[in-house]
Amino acid sequence: MSAIRAAVFSPSNQWHEKIQTHFPTHPNRSINNANPNLQSNRRNPFPCFSVDASKSPNPATPLTDTTPPLVVVGSANADIYVEIDRLPKEGETISAKSGQTLAGGKGANQAACGGKLSYPTYFVGQVGEDAHGKLITEALESGGVCLDRLSAVSGAPTGHAVVMLQSDGQNSIIIVGGSNMECWPERISDEDLEVVRNAGIVLLQREIPESVNVQVAKAAKSAGVPVILDAGGMDTPISRELLNFVDILSPNETELGRLTGMPTESFEQISNAVVKLHKMGVKQVLVKLGDKGSALFVDGEEPLKQPVIPAAKVLDTTGAGDTFTASFAVALVEGKSKRECLRFAAAAASLCVQVKGAIPSMPERKSVLNLLQSP
């Protein structure tokens, strides 16, 4: 049986490997898992991290039970890509240069990023019992993500998105929620919440019902587990209830403006908008600024700015924000300073935009480290 290889960033800034035990599968779930013959270790609350080593670029190694995983709770989509020279005008039909369907969705993207960065990563979400669900499952497995809490539901199709990719790498996206928004239980199971409580850090987004995010964030907060909420997804205000349980809110410029009702065209305007979020109770705000880099605002402190790390060529920006947020989370749970976290995430995002697709573009740890070490 194979498992995930993890590397942990120590306070001395040296990378070293750690070992994680195998975990049991819960019998009462409809689960997509590559290995039906999972071993069990009742001393650890997490299911086993199991992938097919023949398919995975990150062959797995068991990790110690002292390595708390990244737990991503969120969406999984089949991204239907169409490559076009420009967006169609109203009432106009244009031809696409090519089209393909790839695995994506903000939750799955972030989980795949964690797995490809060789950190033990756990995905809690839902797919339909269809071909798109299989596509997503296989993509996550090949990235080294534990799927013991990924459910296949019969009452809704797998979520999907139409991604209109223009020749300059920019994209426009239309999302169909499907199983991401439907068929969730009214109360999240104790098994799922136990995984959350034992995580090292929890990542949420806004492509699943807010009631799910509230339950997960509350469980994490009660156990002292940091929660990062990516603001991408629903175009609606975030409830104060959810914000009360969030440690870091991560919007991009557009989302920041939408959440605060304030302009975000200059850094000064962005700073003023963040102050409004601080007054709403959010102590840390991680703002993604596209080609202008990123900035971390901690209430009462000077903001930390991180310039973009230039990419050799921008082919597709899809998934770049998810790569940045997930990479930041991985670096944070591994003990890096906030400035190091920003730089690590910037390097990962720079590599992401050089490859087409969302999950296919998530970089491996070795590539990120090589970029950080290059002159």
UniProtKB/TrEMBL annotation:
Its EC number is 2.7.1.15. SUPFAM superfamilies: Ribokinase-like. It comes from the Eukaryota. It holds the Pfam family PfkB. Residues 27-42 have a biased composition (Polar residues). One of its GO terms (cellular component) is nucleus. Its cofactor is Mg(2+). GO terms for molecular function: ATP binding; metal ion binding; ribokinase activity. Activated by a monovalent cation that binds near, but not in, the active site. The most likely occupant of the site in vivo is potassium. Ion binding induces a conformational change that may alter substrate affinity. GO terms for biological process: D-ribose catabolic process. Residues 70-364 form the Carbohydrate kinase PfkB domain. Pathway: Carbohydrate metabolism; D-ribose degradation; D-ribose 5-phosphate from beta-D-ribopyranose: step 2/2. Substrate binds at residues 77-79, 105-109, 207, 322. Gene3D superfamilies: 3.40.1190.20. It catalyses: D-ribose + ATP = D-ribose 5-phosphate + ADP + H(+). The active site is at residue 322. It is found in: Cytoplasm; Nucleus. Belongs to the carbohydrate kinase pfkB family. This is Ribokinase. It comes from Malus baccata.
